[in-house]
Amino acid sequence: MKRLTILxxxxxxxxxxSAQDDTTSKPPRPDTMRIGNILIIKKDGKKNKDNKxxxxxxxxxxxxxxxxxxxxxxxxxxxxxxxxxxxxxxxxTNYANAGNYLVNNPASGVPAISSSDFKLRTGKSIxxxxxxxxxxxxxxxxxxxxxxxxxxxxxxxxYKSGITYKExxxxxxxxxxxxxxxxxxxxxxxxxxxKLAADYITVPIMLSFASTPSNDKxxxxxxxxxxxxxxxxxxxxxxxxxxxxKKNKGEYDLEKFKISYIAELGLGPVRLYGSYSxxxxxxxxxxxxxxTFGVRFSNL
Length: 300
Known about the structure:
By secondary structure, the chain is mostly beta strands. It is about 5% helix and about 50% strand. The chain has 2 domains: about 25-70, no CATH class; about 75-295. It has an 8-stranded antiparallel beta barrel. Strands 1, 2, 3, 4, 5 and 6 form a 6-stranded antiparallel sheet that branches. A 3-stranded mixed sheet has the order 8-14-11, with no helix packed on it. Strand 12 (about 170) and strand 13 form a beta hairpin.
């Protein structure tokens, strides 16, 4: 009897120990499931009620679409923006008091240089701007932004008349010489091309509004601001049967700096631009205020 009691006690002890160490019991059901690189989070064996998934990097997935909630970059850059348009100006010159800058033919019956001599061939007076870059800085929820850039502003003014620019030298009709720039009219030569080119390196700064900031090619965008330009080249290019093609480079009394009001209108993928300078591009005598308008090829 004593031996039976000891045997039963030993069996009970072994069974109790094996029950505590049993590893064959069914483990708790996992709350995740991996399919490829997609990790699906479950709750109580079911997909969560928001039908949300998480990829292996922790990025939230909804209905198979990546809805990465990282913030968009505050700065967007567009390289090599190009403008193609027309150049013109508002002539407010008082030609009666233009001074010695304009040299007139004293011959009887020859009219003095006037506003008609500075009229342009509007279809051939071209503005081309090449912006090295333009950036947009988000200010308020991508609806309101600051736009700025750097580039070249190239203006070609094609004249109807034969006015000619000289940096210095003998004055026509008088035989005198001057060290100042002057303009006179070639009455005896018919020009097939006569233009003044004025080129600037320019920095534009604008405040911009976008109606649909999530898509730059939809909705309406409106930008307005100012630009500051520095004149780095000026030249008078002429072409005629008598003298062929000539290009006169020099200092023609144009202002070195130009400040302009600028604006941009975006209608879907189409961008229109315009500029107007409230001050003359000449240092003295002539009061000629340039403006431009055209199409901008840009993604911003």
